[in-house]
Structures are given as structure tokens and as C-alpha cells.
Amino acid sequence: MARIIESVADSVESSPQLAGQIADNLTAIVSYQRILTKKIVGLRIRVKQKGTAKQPWLNANTGVLQGKRKPPSSSKA
After folding, report:
1. Which of 10, 19, 46, 50 has the maximal Cβ count within 10 Å?
2. Is 44:50 a contact under the CB 8 Å cutoff?
3. Distance CA 12, CA 22 (A)
4. Which of 17, 16, 48 shows the shortest CA–CA distance to 31?
5. CA 71, CA 77: separation in Å to the nearest integer?
6. How far is CA 4 from CA 1, 11, 13, 61, in A?
7. What's the pLDDT at 73?
């Protein structure tokens, strides 16, 4: 597999058009693998999202925002 990838990489260096075609082929292969995985195993593989990450949402009631942890409430009944 490594030899195949290296030979494809060598070919792509000389032809940008070939690079685009290979990228399209790899995208199709990934799509087929995702479909097969879903059908055979029954698991959905999430598609990687592109974008800018936002700050994590933290619940102010837990004390995490202040760097402190709120003691668990003891509700013994």
C-alpha cells in the first residue's frame, strides 16, 4: 500500500490535473466505504465538519467556569 501511495504521489507532482482526479477518486472511495460500513456493521460514521471551532459551553452552575468544582449535593432519603 505504501508503494502505491508513493508512486501516486510521484505522478501527482508532475500533473496538477491528475492530482484533482485522484482527489475525486479518493473522495468516492471514502463515500463507498462509509456506505458499506453503515450497511454491514450498522454504524454511521460522521462526516468531518470543516469550520472554526468555538469556545466550549460550560454550565455556570457546576463551578467549572471559576475553576472550582461544586460539591455534589447529598440527597439521602
Report:
1. 19
2. no
3. 8
4. 48
5. 18
6. 5, 11, 14, 54
7. 67
Predicted local distance difference test score (pLDDT) of residue 46? 76
pLDDT in tens, the chain (77 residues): 678 778 877 877 878 888 888 888 888 988 888 888 888 888 777 777 788 877 767 666 665 555 566 666 665 55
- How far is residue 31's CA from residue 47's CA, in Å, rounded to a whole number? 10
How many Cβ atoms are within 10 Å of 12's Cβ, its own excluded?
16
Within 8 A by CB and 6+ apart from 22, the residues are 8, 12
H helix intervals, the chain: 2-14, 16-41
| pTM, 2 dp | 0.46
